[in-house]
Design brief:
It is a single chain. With 378 residues, the chain is mainly beta. The chain folds into three domains: 101 residues, Sandwich (Immunoglobulin-like), CATH 2.60.40; 103 residues; 129 residues, Immunoglobulin-like (Sandwich), CATH 2.60.40. Helix content is 7%, strand content 48%. Strands 21-20-23-24-25-26 form a six-stranded antiparallel beta sheet, with no helix packed on it. Strands 2, 4, 7, 8 and 16 form a five-stranded mixed beta sheet that branches. The longest helix is centred in the first third of the chain and has 25 residues. The chain is elongated and about 120 Å long.
């Protein structure tokens, strides 16, 4: 009988040891259990300096971040990449795999967006984004137009225009129109009748007209014995190209787009905002926005994203990223993202938001400051 009791105690001791072992195993971080993993990466800060530049005089910014593990140790890796850039732009990142990187060759005006990925010692990643606005400020000088009696006149800029800048030259007679691409700037008097002809030279940035960037030339034409320009009646001369870069205005002219608090689940997503920070320089209506998601769907200014719209074709538990891009007089000036989980339940709705790699039921679309400089002539 004693032997049986001893055996029973032995079995009980083994069971207790197994329970304790299992309890410790449940707290083990290696397999992703409940105890916080001290190797998890944390991005404490991230920024671009400066946050806005003016090309072509400025074309470099510094990207910096502070990232550590939860226990204070160094993270496994840091990486900066170019997420978005203006058409024709080719920015390069030096020391892209360090906490202090340098972006060079930002030579095209527009919006640049840089992606920061931090990998922890447990191979988990955290992602953030930095946006830099590149305005344009450039004085266009021209070669000599010509003199009275010349058969041709020349509208060529003296120096190469900034990348992304083009012009269209046309006359008020509807006879000729030239695009600067492949055009040498030379106009012949042939084809024009006696009298005056006015030429308009309009400059564009990435296909959009730049405010107050038009040169007009009024030429007198004589056709005897052959057509020639007999006089320069008037010439507005040089042109200053400005886009978000009127240097007479301080950078403090800005519009703040408030954060949007999300309460999930929800069948709709409304990005409509009441902007703050308007001044007389920036009348209401000059800022608009567009929503685009990574599935190729688009919503215009003021339209609500309706998750119950069956034509969208989203799958259950599918994660979808929405990007809200803001435009100032038609030009992009900033953007912000939100990543939401879609569910087919309830006819279609958004059920969760991703924040720093974690799934949450509540959260906010972050506040955004749009750095604006009034265009000349507004």
């Amino acid at each position: 009988m004693k032997t049986n009791k001893t055996f029973a105690y032995g079995i009980l001791s083994v069971l207790i040891a197994l329970v304790i072992a299992l309890a410790f195993t449940a707290c083990d971080n290696e397999n992703g259990n409940s105890t916080p993993d001290t190797r998890e990466p944390i991005i404490a800060s991230y920024s671009a300096t400066p946050a806005s530049i003016t090309v072509p005089a400025e074309n470099t910014v510094q990207l910096t971040c502070t990232a550590t593990s939860k226990d204070g140790s160094a993270v496994k890796s840091v990486k900066w990449t170019v997420e978005e850039k203006p058409e024709l732009a080719n920015p390069t990142i030096v020391n892209a795999e360090t906490a202090a990187a340098t972006v060079n060759n930002m030579e095209v005006a527009g919006t640049y967006k840089f992606k920061l990925i931090v990998t922890g010692n447990n191979d988990a990643t955290k992602t953030e984004y930095v946006t830099v606005i590149a305005g344009l400020y450039y004085e266009v000088e021209f070669v000599s137009l010509g003199t009275a009696g010349d058969v041709t006149i020349n509208f060529s800029p003296k120096y190469d225009l900034p990348v992304g800048v083009t012009y269209i030259l046309e006359d008020n007679k509807g006879i000729n129109s030239w695009n600067s691409t492949g055009f040498n700037g030379v106009v012949n008097a042939s084809g024009y009748n006696d009298g005056n002809v006015i030429f308009t030279q309009t400059f564009y940035l990435n296909g959009a007209e730049i405010a107050s960037s038009t040169r007009t030339v009024n030429m007198g034409v004589d056709t005897f014995p052959d057509a020639y320009f007999m006089a320069i009646v008037s010439d507005t001369g040089s042109v200053t190209l400005k886009w978000l870069a009127d240097m007479s205005l301080p950078i403090t002219h800005a519009i703040t787009v408030p954060a949007i608090a999300l309460s999930l689940p929800s069948s709709t997503l409304n990005f409509a905002q009441t902007y703050t920070g308007y001044t007389a320089d920036f009348p209401s209506g000059c800022v608009t926005y567009k929503i685009v998601n990574d599935k190729g769907h688009t919503w215009n200014n003021g339209e609500v994203v309706d998750a119950s719209d069956a034509s969208l074709g989203y799958g259950n538990s599918e994660w979808i990223t929405f990007t809200q891009t803001f435009y100032y007089n038609g030009q992009p000036v900033g953007s912000r993202d939100v990543k939401l989980r879609y569910s087919t339940s309830g006819g279609g709705r958004f059920t969760a938001i991703e924040i720093n790699g974690s799934t949450e039921l509540t959260g906010t679309i972050p506040e955004l400051t749009l750095l604006l400089r009034k265009n000349a002539g507004e």
